[in-house]
Amino acid sequence: MNPFSFRNPTAIFFGEGSLSKLSEQVGQYGKSVLLVYGGGSIKKSGLYDRVLEQLNAAGATVVELAGIEPNPRLTTVNKGIELCRTHGVEFILAVGGGSVIDASKAIAAGAKYDGDVWDFLDRKAVVQDALPIGTVLTLAATGSEMNGSSVITNWETQQKRGFGSPHVYPRFSILDPTLTYTVPRDQTVNGVVDIMSHVFEQYFSLTTDTPLQERLCESILQTVIENAEVALEQPENYAARANIMWCGTLALNGGLISLGMTNDWASHGIEHEISAIYDIPHGAGLSIVFPNWMKYVYDARPDRFAQYAVRVWGIDPAGKSEDELALAGIEATRAFFTKIGAPATLSHYNIGSENLDRMAEEAVRFGPIGSFKRLNQADVKAIYELSL
Ligand SMILES: NC(=O)c1ccc[n+]([C@@H]2O[C@H](COP(=O)([O-])OP(=O)(O)OC[C@H]3O[C@@H](n4cnc5c(N)ncnc54)[C@H](O)[C@@H]3O)[C@@H](O)[C@H]2O)c1
Questions:
Q1: Nearest CA to ligand 1 atom 42
Q2: CA–CA separation, 99 vs 106, rounded Å?
Q3: Which pTM was predicted?
Q4: What are the residue boundaries of the Alcohol dehydrogenase iron-type/glycerol dehydrogenase GldA domain, all occurrences included (predicted)?
Q5: pLDDT tens over the chain, length 388 residues
Q6: Fewest 10 Å CB contacts: which of 80, 138, 277, 281?
Q7: Rounded distance between C-alpha atoms, residue 239 and residue 198, angstroms
């Protein structure tokens, strides 16, 4: 196990009815609030009115930024920064999924920075300060509600990049599983794949002597697998939605589940290049890429993949070699993704080989990626080719 330090400052209010905590929480951070949300599902569900009631109760003056895109765009982030400056915004409230929260984090950092916010995404500057943000989560997937990461797309240059900073951890996040009842089937599937992928990036590690971390990862995977189909069949099943929601928050929680382990994150980088150009959902891209990444790298450490097959998928090890077990676990992953309706190939989105070189080049723009197996441009292209 490697040395580590850990701090997560986000307060969590979890459970049905936890929205009632909102006014008291917002009241701690300021009176001038930027309310950030997406395409209007919060208006249809009535959540918008409930949030405004809470903000009124806190005596807040509210400015709104609506229409955050899935795969949030730099242009929209810049609009938010402008609103913060014009209206003297003191606090940002994100109501939505990962896209709304990520956009809010970039706005929070950009509002306190004199230069171009893209500098943070382009690794030309490091966030030194940010407006405080809070979230009301409506979709279980990214973990953005309790981490310091944000992913933004520059649509003009077709670059999707991330930044991380302790300054943009939400001060609080309200996690009411009933707010995810309206998440459509395909987004529920994407969320499940995203959560599992976050765990994979940490679990498939070369670090040894980390039994607790491995079991934390395995238990999140098992819990998501057990609950996914229930949530898909019964979208208003509280237990299933609650279990998936908490798994999502823990899966990417400032590294909580894999403290002391070296992480990989290559598959996220490989996926970002797909959604940067084709604007497909992040979870769908991961569903396509991840099992192919697994096939490409498993021989770096077949024992970890064999352990995954046995412990997560219950595959009987009797009479099987480590390699056979590893491959059976990878097949089980693909079969599960397919069973819940997640895509397996780029051709599902009519994506061909036209941009593979460009995507592979961009994925390694800061050098080889991943740590389980270091991947150069040719490796990344090979994984894209397996994904066609
Ligand atoms: N910050 C992080 O740590 C992190 C991690 C992984 C991915 N990401 C990024 O997050 C983004 C994806 O976020 P996401 O997966 O949460 O999805 P999302 O926020 O993009 O939302 C997907 C769709 O679901 C809709 N939606 C959300 N809540 C709903 C509800 N309750 N009812 C009905 N519809 C609802 C949205 O309007 C949107 O159309 C991508 O840009 C991805 O790259 C960030």
A1: 282
A2: 11
A3: 0.97
A4: 9-177
A5: 999 999 999 999 999 999 999 999 999 999 999 999 998 899 999 999 999 999 999 999 999 999 999 989 999 999 999 999 999 999 999 999 999 999 999 999 999 999 999 999 999 999 999 999 999 999 999 999 999 999 999 999 988 899 999 999 999 999 999 999 999 999 999 999 999 999 999 999 999 999 999 999 999 999 999 999 999 999 999 999 999 999 999 999 999 999 999 999 999 999 999 999 999 999 999 999 999 999 999 999 999 999 999 999 999 999 999 999 999 999 999 999 999 999 999 999 999 999 999 999 999 999 999 999 999 999 999 999 999 9
A6: 277
A7: 22
Residue 290 CA to ligand 1 centre (angstroms): 19
Query: Whose C-alpha lies nearest to ligand 1, atom 39?
Result: 70
Is the Cβ atom of 96 under 6 angstroms away from ligand 1? yes
Atom in ligand 1 nearest the alpha carbon of residue 182: 32
Residue with the smallest CA separation from ligand 1 atom 2 is: 144
Nearest ligand 1 atom to alpha carbon 40: 37
Nearest ligand 1 atom to alpha carbon 180: 31
Question: Cα angle vertex 192, ends 96, 257, to 5°?
Answer: 90
Which pair of structure tokens corresponds to residue 137? 């989560």
- Identify the H or E element spanning 322: helix 322-340
Q: Whose CA is nearest to atom 24 of ligand 1?
A: 187
